[in-house]
Amino acid sequence: MDHKGTVKTGYNAIAEQYLEKRTMKSTDFALLDDFVQQLQPYAKVLDAGCGAGIPVTRVLSENFDITGVDFSEKQIELAKKNVPDATFICQDMTQLDFPAQSFDGICSYYAIIHIPRKEHRALLENFYRVLKPGGITLLCLGADDVPDDTHSFHNIQMYWSHFDAATYKLMLKEIGFSILSSKIVPDETYNGEHLFVLAQKGNA
C-alpha cells in the first residue's frame, strides 16, 4: 500500500479545512516558545512538514530565516501565500539533501507521525546531520506504539505510523541528541496524543 500517497492525497484534499483547526491557543503551540527562546535572532530554521504555514511557520518567520518543507502541493501553495517571507520547498522530508550543518534549528509538527516508522531513525539521523553543533530541534512524535494505521480523519483517509514515547527518547539519545524537555500533549483537533521533544545536538 502507498502510505505516503494516502497522506499526500489526504492533506491536499483537506488543506484549507485542516488549517482552520489549528490555533495559536493550543497546548502544542505553546511549546513553540521554548524552541524560539533557544535560538538567536535571524537563525536558520527548518520547518519540516510545514503544511500551510499557519501558525508555526508564520510565527517562526517573525524572528528567523525559515525554510518550510512539505510534500503536499496544496499545502505549499497555501504556505507561500500565508508566509511570503519564508522559503518553501515541495519535497518528501525523508529525502532532504541539505548540506551538513545547514540549520540552527529544526521544528516538525504533526508530520513524522504520518511517515512509515521504519524510516524514522534515518529521518532523525538526517535532522542531526543538517543541524549545526548546538542546534535545537522541536519534534512531534508518537506517544504510543502504532505500527500501521489508516482510518478516517476530517472525512478523508489518513495514515499513522510511530513508536512509543520511550522508544523515541532512547532513539534520539542514541543518535546523539540531548533531550532538554519532553511532554505528552493531547491533539486538540483529533482524539489522540503525541510526544513533543525539545532536544539539542552536541557541540563536538
Provide an overview of this structure.
By secondary structure, this protein is an alpha/beta fold. The chain has a single domain (3-201), classed as Rossmann fold, CATH 3.40.50.150. Helix content is 33%, strand content 33%. It contains 7 helices and 9 strands. It has helices at residues 3-21, 27-30, 32-37, 56-61, 73-82, 120-130, 165-175; strands spanning 44-48, 65-70, 87-90, 103-108, 131-142, 146-153, 156-162, 177-186, 193-201. A 7-stranded mixed beta sheet has the order 3-2-1-4-5-9-8, sandwiched between helices. The chain has a two-stranded antiparallel ribbon with strand order 6-7. Helix 1 (3-21) runs parallel beside helix 5 (73-82). The longest helix is centred in the N-terminal third of the chain and has 19 residues, at 3-21. The radius of gyration is 15 Å and the shape is globular. The termini are far apart. The model is unreliable at 5-15 and 17-21 (pLDDT under 50).
